[in-house]
Design a protein that fits this description.
With 344 residues, this protein is α/β, with parallel strands linked by helices. The protein is built from twelve helices and 16 strands.
């Protein structure tokens, strides 16, 4: 079968290779992939970021955002059956560590990932542990089902702390997950949603998905604009996705005293923090990692089926798997939001 893989170390190193169809083992399911999304983690692998380089064995079939149909089950599988439509949860959790045993499997200390530690879903077939196959209560378009995994992060961050209902919210960084957070915050009843991103295509999508304002940090004084949009108070919730030091600092500066700062995108290098100012501002800090398994999934399904959220504006391109490298190039050039790959 054709598979989009990381085959050599260093930047790029991607290739379409002929890969043997995977074989099912005990506790595993075989999925015929119908759609997969290119994620920011895949871009990090493309760039050969150090944390990926330390753990990956090459060649490796990439991809962890996927949807498809179960076509085979291994010994001991009892929750998933042949014919089920599924999306992939990317965290292969151990079930044995302290975090797993205390309802925090999304923080499992032994987490492994498809497309990193095992072969992923940029192929026609993938084999994964039954534990990460989320069964759809009813079929939906595979292209949208493929991005339920990142949608779950948006759901998690919007439900953390006091939630977002009736609150002014800032979303700093409008990549695909940031855009889904804009849509989720709007659907969950945020009083005002302010998006910030330097890329025009992302700002346009943020408005389409429900943002009241979409600001360019290269041309606007973001703190002043946010204060103007919130009667001088700042936002009650700032969600930082950009992973940049300016984005981090600006988002924090936009939080009203005693508000909430929810960190998703981690800066590549350490940042100095003035703790005296932090104590005077008194923000509550939430670090967001992944989705709550399976709570976030049940919540996102209910919101999706309610019709209050539409994931289609996030999907900028649908490409055959054979053009998968083009999808990476589009993201790197700032010309794509979420490319979806179809292994037809």
């Amino acid at each position: 079968m054709l598979a989009l893989s990381k085959v050599t170390q260093g930047e790029n190193g991607l290739a379409l290779v002929d890969h043997a169809e995977p074989q099912i083992g005990p506790g595993q399911v075989l999925i015929r992939i119908e759609a997969s999304g290119i994620c920011g983690t895949d871009i990090q692998i493309y760039k050969w970021a150090p944390r990926m380089a330390r753990r990956m064995t090459l060649p490796r079939v990439l991809g962890h955002e996927g949807s498809g149909v179960v076509v085979g089950v291994g010994q001991g599988v009892n929750r998933v059956k042949v014919g089920d439509h599924v999306s992939l949860e990317s965290h292969i959790f151990c079930g044995e560590c302290h975090q797993c045993k205390t309802d925090r499997a999304h923080l499992c200390v032994n987490t492994r990932y498809p497309g990193v530690d095992i072969d992923g879903c940029f192929a026609r077939y993938v084999v994964v542990p039954e534990q990460i196959a989320w069964v759809h209560p009813e079929p939906i378009p595979f292209e949208q089902a493929a991005i339920f995994e990142p949608f779950g992060i948006a759901m998690h961050v919007c439900n953390e702390g006091r939630g977002v209902a009736s609150l002014p919210v800032l979303v700093s960084g409008c990549g695909p997950i940031g855009l889904m957070a804009v849509a989720t915050a709007r659907a969950l009843g945020a009083r005002k949603v302010i998006a910030v991103d330097p890329i025009a295509i992302r700002r346009r999508a943020a408005i389409e998905l429900g943002a009241d304002a979409a600001l360019d940090p290269t041309t606007h004084d973001i703190v002043a604009e946010v204060k103007a949009l919130t009667a001088g108070q700042g936002v009650e919730v700032a969600i930082e996705f950009s992973g940049t030091e300016p984005g981090f600092r600006t988002a924090l500066d936009c939080v009203t005293k005693g508000g909430e700062f929810r960190l998703v995108g981690a800066p590549a290098l350490p940042i100095e923090i003035d703790l005296t100012r932090w104590l005077l501002q008194c923000p509550t800090i939430y670090n967001i990692h992944g989705r709550r398994i399976w709570r976030s999934w049940d919540q996102l399904w209910a919101l999706f089926k309610s019709g209050k959220i539409d994931l289609r504006p996030v999907i900028s391109h649908v490409l055959p798997l054979s053009e998968g490298i083009t999808g990476f190039d589009l993201i790197r050039k700032g010309e794509a939001l979420k490319p979806i790959l179809i292994p037809s």
